[in-house]
Write a structure and sequence with these properties.
The complex is a heterodimer.
Chain A: E1 4-7, E2 10-12, E3 19-29, E4 34-39, E5 46-50, E6 54-55, E7 63-76, E8 86-91, E9 97-98, E10 102-105
Parallel strand pairs in A: 2-10
Antiparallel strand pairs in A: 1-3, 3-7, 4-5, 4-8, 5-6, 8-9, 8-10
Chain B: E1 3-6, E2 10-12, E3 18-25, E4 33-39, E5 46-51, E6 58-60, E7 68-73, E8 78-83, E9 92-101, E10 107-113, E11 117-121
The chains are: A mainly beta, B mainly beta.
């Protein structure tokens, strides 16, 4: 099973700042098979990025996915108040696994 | 618009079974796989099973094999999750989600989610 490790566990930033979230895989994943989700309290996850760098429908362009091999990054270029949430990465090259999440807090 | 509407919260005793439903609308049901994902309180996401509504093929996560059953009813565009032999560790929010296809045609990422169904296991 491919294990995804996200870091940091918690990231404390302010609106207007840049956020960089990391997702590392236990073995190489083609860049086409990684997704990112955002989850707010009491809500279902929402797809942000698929194929490592493609934004899902309706997702703001401040959300940028990048990476390949074992190291992937979600960058939020300029934080808005509504961006504070938990973020999960997910691989789909071999079955499905999710990272443990990064809590982005104000 | 794509919608997945799940059944309401449920409370079960240890050892019982639970059945959760997920009704899809706003798209052609047979064209997209549907996956079940659960989330224990304060924890991360864990997939349980995925079904191809066209043909009915199902794949289960290994850790739930033998305890979970996923079915679908094409006449009502509904997918069901059955989980048996419940313990307190099965207390969680259960989500269904539509799986969209990656570049190789594999149902890889999840672009629409149900609202979640809270299952509480308690005596």
């Amino acid at each position: 099973e491919i294990v995804l490790t996200q870091s940091p566990g918690t990231l404390s930033l302010s609106p207007g700042e840049r956020a960089t979230l990391s997702c590392r895989a236990s073995q190489s994943i083609s860049s086409s098979y990684l997704a990112w989700y955002q989850q707010k309290p009491g809500q279902a996850p929402r797809l942000l990025i698929y194929g490592a760098s493609s934004r899902a429908s309706g997702i703001a362009d401040r959300f940028i996915g990048s990476g390949s091999g074992t190291d992937f990054t979600l960058t939020i270029s300029r934080l808005e108040p509504e961006d504070f949430a938990v973020y999960y990465c997910q691989q789909y090259v071999s079955s499905y696994t999710f990272g443990q999440g990064t809590n982005l807090e104000i | 618009q794509v919608q997945l509407v799940q059944s309401g919260a449920d409370v079960k005793e240890p050892g019982a079974s639970v059945k959760v439903s997920c009704k899809a609308s706003g798209y052609t049901f047979s064209r997209y796989y549907v996956i079940w994902v659960r989330q224990a309180p304060g924890q991360g996401l864990e997939w349980m099973g995925i079904v191809n509504p066209s043909g009915g093929s199902i794949t289960y996560a290994q850790r739930f094999q033998g305890r979970v059953t996923v079915t679908r009813d094409t006449s009502t565009s509904t997918v069901y999750l059955d989980l048996s032999s419940l313990t307190s560790e099965d207390t969680a929010m259960y989500y269904c989600a539509r799986a969209n296809y990656d570049i190789s045609g594999y149902p890889g990422y999840f672009d629409s989610w149900g609202q979640g169904t809270l299952v509480t296991v308690s005596s």
